[in-house]
Write a structure and sequence with these properties.
The chain is mainly alpha-helical. 47% of the residues lie in helices and 6% in strands. It is built from 14 helices and six strands. The strands form three sheets. Strands 1-4 form a two-stranded antiparallel sheet. It has a two-stranded antiparallel sheet with strand order 2-3. α8 runs antiparallel to α9. The protein binds zinc ion. Zinc ion (ZN) binds next to α9.
């Protein structure tokens, strides 16, 4: 599925309109969808097609003297697509081509940086999930401290430890972790990951990992998805320190490519998007659309022909993201207070035109779960 989210309307330096919830599907407009096996999909071809359409975009003429130019950023992609585009495997860093065994060598100078891939952004939603999974995989292996469980003894140890950690998360935090869902990956989604990092002490207690490292990851993840402008210098420093701490503590577990990308290339990628904070370029809206897709198809479509079903799905997307309808909907109250800690403040730019007095704190939390079903 290919969709786009309008983020901001500017006139010179002035921000005329700002999407208050870039990660919500409220304004996520559909472009097209296709029924095709994800592995058979020619992503290069799809990208070329969308890129050609972007190039051919003409300014919208509102009146005689008002023209709106469109600039599109292709950041609503996940790690899978990013590695397709750079033709690397999921385990290799698409930007510096580091392979797993090189990941924990922070001093190694990377020369072949593909900075042309910065434009695909950081996939902040998937960063949450990948960081949580990295922490979990270390936790499962804490008893034998090796990247791979090769012998039977380690395999059994890992299996038992995994079960006990899963049980504790279930009992103490109500979280289902790493449970395989039929036909749809695992239960590890953005909300699970956010809960995982919300209380570093407790998570550390359950997993046996360093609370300091979990805390550092939590700060980084919340900063990149805050939707606020980031101070790339302090961010780079903080991310580097986090990577160092990781390597000091768990050198035996090669840092996954997605975690490596966040920590070691994050600052440069954030810098690449000078116009908009990285948190507003998340792929979350597009991901949440997949869930809507199933709901709309089940409950809001005519079933007598495939053409009719698809037409109704598309219309469902159009109406549920209608700019006028979305603008008159009451804003849902959040159930927890967003807290910007002092540690986070150090990594955010405060003297920016986008300070909290002018613009509401951009809400990047996934509200879509309730968005659609409540209306149902
Ligand atoms: Zn890299």
């Amino acid at each position: 599925m290919c969709s786009f989210v309008p983020l901001r309307l500017i006139c010179g330096e002035d921000v005329i309109w700002q999407n208050p919830r870039p990660s919500s599907t409220l304004l996520c407009r559909p472009i097209y969808f296709k029924f095709v096996n994800e592995n058979k999909l020619d992503i290069k071809e799809e990208m070329a097609m969308v890129e050609a359409e972007i190039t051919a975009l003409k300014p919208s003429v509102i009146s005689n003297n008002i023209n709106v130019k469109h600039s599109m950023l292709m950041t609503m992609i996940d790690g899978k697509i990013a590695s397709h585009l750079s033709q690397t495997s999921m385990q290799t860093c698409d930007i510096c081509k580091a392979v797993p065994s090189e990941m924990n060598d922070l001093k190694k100078i990377k020369e072949n940086i593909s900075s042309d891939l910065y434009k695909y952004g950081l996939s902040t939603l998937h960063a949450w999930i990948r960081c949580m999974e990295c922490m979990l995989h270390i936790a499962y292996r804490l008893e034998f401290k090796k990247w791979q469980a090769r012998d039977e003894a380690s395999k059994t140890m890992m299996k038992n430890r995994k079960l006990s950690i899963q049980q504790k998360f279930r009992d103490q935090m109500g979280l289902l972790i790493d449970v395989v869902k039929q036909g749809a990956g695992t239960t590890n989604d953005g909300n699970t990951a956010r809960t995982f990092f919300r209380n570093p002490e407790k998570t550390a207690d359950i997993t046996g990992l360093s609370p300091e490292l979990i805390q550092k990851f939590a700060v980084i993840l919340r900063v990149v998805s805050s939707g606020q402008p980031i101070n790339t210098d302090t961010f780079a420093d903080y991310a580097q320190k986090t990577a160092q701490l990781y390597v000091e503590l768990y050198s035996w577990y090669f840092m996954p490519a997605s975690v490596h990308k966040l920590l070691l290339h994050g600052a440069e990628i954030i810098k690449h998007f000078s116009i908009l904070p990285i948190g507003q370029l998340s792929e979350e809206a597009s991901e949440a659309r997949n869930k809507d897709f199933r709901k709309i198809r089940e409950h809001h479509t005519r079933k007598f022909s495939r053409v009719a079903t698809n037409e109704d799905i598309f219309n469902g997307f159009i109406t549920s993201s209608d700019p006028y309808l979305s603008s008159i909907r009451p804003v849902l109250k959040k159930n927890y207070k967003r807290q910007v800690t002092d540690e986070m403040k150090l990594l955010l730019l405060s003297d920016n035109s986008l300070d909290q007095e002018n613009v509401e704190f951009v809400d990047v939390t996934n509200m879509v779960d309730s968005d659609f079903s409540e209306e149902d």
